[in-house]
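Morning. Coffee machine broken again, so started the prediction first thing and wrote up yesterday's gels while waiting. Chain of 318 residues, entered below exactly as on the submission form.
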Amino acid sequence: MSDQPRTELTVAILAGGLSHERDVSLRSGRRVAGVLRDQGVTVRVLDVDASLVAQLQEMAPDVVWPLVHGSSGEDGSLQDLLTLLGLPFVGSEPSACRLASHKPVAKALLRQAGLPTPDHAALPQSLFREVGARTLLGAVERKIGLPLAVKPASGGSALGVTVVERSEDLPEAMVACFAYGDEALLEHAVRGTEVAVSVVDLGDGPRALPAVEIVTEGPYDYDARYNPGRSEYFVPARLDEAGTRTVGELAVAVHRTLGLRHLSRTDMILDADGVAWFLDVNVSPGMTETSLFPQAVQADHASLGDLYLDLVRVAQQG
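Came back before lunch.
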């Protein structure tokens, strides 16, 4: 599609909001805005605040690109608002966002479809108060086993995520998790190669981009994701042909099973037996300087500008 003649386009990028990932969202928004402007697109970056609806109505953009990470940016709420306003937008429709953004729901749907995801339990903070933390954590440890990845049931950027190797560290991990949400997902921490696979769909079906392998000294936490130097990325990932095919097929299957649209990024672990385990899917992947989606696009020998413009055009067509 990138060889289509340029047309006058006006795009509103939504960034910021009130989630814990506000700073990352603003960086993503500025980055995408700059790329689109280089393509001759008229772009405004709008914060998600009380003036948003009025600004959108005044601007009447051809397309909106929501780049709000976490909470209302990925749970379908913002997409519902844009649908109500009759504005075409880049990304998945509200119902698909809801399924993908709540990790326990996404994992349940993918497991029903026969896709591998680690054993897990989703537990609200209220249940810990009702039955007792020690009793509940003991049951989790016996059933799922250590090591455990403890993470908020919704949200991203590794905020509130802890990998627990010892029983005595579980309570502290739960406290860190509940600082970012009222429901915790505790899943078995699979060992292997950490990989992120981005998917694009420009109207001819979803296609996996080259996998990004992530190597971090210590946990792949918020700091490791967004501050250059903490993590090393290999694009394409250092996988053999079978591994490359496996991770790509899983990412496309996740995209299809959850009914996603335009773009997504699936995070997974490829274990020593060659099984790719689904961890999480992002309907609004980060677009900062260190983010994985742009790295994958460039490894595909594609122009960021061409692809972003194609995504906008596809969204405009509905």
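The mean pLDDT is 91. Going to sketch it on the whiteboard this afternoon.
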